[in-house]
Write a structure and sequence with these properties.
Strand content: 15-25%
Radius of gyration: 14 Å
Shape: globular
Helix content: 25-40%
Order of helices and strands: EHEHHEEH
Number of helices: 4
Strand order of the largest sheet: 1-2-4-3
Structural class: alpha+beta
Largest sheet: 4 strands, mixed
Number of strands: 4
Length: 116
Amino acid sequence: MKPEISGAKAISDRVIKAAWKKVSTKPLPDIYAYSLTDEAFDSAMKSLQKKKGAIDTRMEEYGVDFDNELIEALTFEFEENIIIFVKQSVPLADALNHELKHVAKWIHLDKHVKHA
């Protein structure tokens, strides 16, 4: 069961599975994904950026730094779970696919695989 988050709506496992199949042939890792209001997303992002060990990949990914307001989605690990936040104001499929491509590249993917 996905935890409740204020200002957020859980993205269904069905949607996550369909998006994952478009970006990877690897087993689907444990992922919790949420669509957040812009305000909730911006607040969460600012909090995450303050956390020790947070890695901001904007420069690596895009070659330039830019304002947080332009970020549409983000992915992070929390207590060995992969969490994806997507702004409600952006196309869900595009943002989710983009974030899942990052997840598919992660080196330690095997620790996130669901065990049947």
